[in-house]
Amino acid sequence: MTTDVVCVEIPGNRDDVLRILKRTGISGVPVLKEGVLVGIITRKDLLRKPDEMQLGLLMTPDPVTITPDVTIQAATAILTENHFRRLPVVEGGELVGLISISDIVGAIARMKITDEIRNKFSSHTFAIWEESPLPLVGRIMEMSGYDAVPILNEDGQLTGIISERDLIRNSSIEDSVEVSDFSNGTDDDEWTWESIRDMHTISYGISKVQLPDKPVKDAMVKEVVAVPLNAEISECALKMKRARVDQLPVINGDRKMVSMLYDRELIRIILEEA
């Protein structure tokens, strides 16, 4: 597990969380209140609730936790069954660490597993055109549930990968003022006293996480690390760890992409090795 865990405290600021995720590239942070773990905030939370500023409403409360003596197989089973990316490790009511999919991928890299990934851990996916607007790409990823998507040019060639990490890296905080009309919709002449009395408007500030209106090709990772169908499991895990990526495109003999290898699928080998 990782023992030097980056955390945020309630009450806190959403903007601080965004800065932490941008600076570190991590996918989420535990939320503490008076030193006690009360929730988790992830990249998905910031992207799905761009208008929300309160950490208590952004976070997932009462996260599933484990103790330090839990086996790596048991931790992997919890992560895969619940589609989590991380598990807080708690001992005596105190947060002592965090075990993530990335940590388990690092363990797989050291296990020297020589089985090929062919037809075992690769997943079908879809691709997005490189000229697609970034806000639209973010919405497509949210609807599909994919953490990362390959990007193709007009000739169908793989030119990059866009991930939630890249969305966060390119996002910014946008402040604006909106006006709400609370009038009762009267049909009276607008100059009558009754009409004036029944017209109420409120102006209020809006602060939201915003993606810039630029093509996805300007935000994607262009130096893509890919693997062949006969790549070995531990070899792929090592490539993920070194490149700090959550996925690898899988290519055939003609170097055309045929599928994706996601870290959340790769860690299932731990359950088979148990």
UniProtKB/TrEMBL annotation:
GO biological process assignments: methionine biosynthetic process
Answer whether the UniProt record assigns the keyword Amino-acid biosynthesis to this protein. yes
Write down the superkingdom of origin: Archaea
Looking up Pfam families in the UniProt record yields: CBS
In terms of PROSITE patterns, this protein maps to:
CBS
Q: CBS domain spans which residues?
A: 1-57, 59-116, 121-177, 220-274
Keywords of the record, alphabetical order, are: Amino-acid biosynthesis, CBS domain, Methionine biosynthesis
Q: Does the keyword Amino-acid biosynthesis apply?
A: yes
**SUPFAM superfamilies, per the entry:** CBS-domain pair (SSF54631)
UniProt cross-references to PANTHER family, sorted A to Z: CBS DOMAIN-CONTAINING PROTEIN CBSX3, MITOCHONDRIAL, OS02G0818000 PROTEIN
What name does this protein carry? CBS domain-containing protein
What organism, scientifically named, is this protein from?
Methanogenium organophilum
- Taxonomic lineage per UniProt? Archaea, Methanobacteriati, Methanobacteriota, Stenosarchaea group, Methanomicrobia
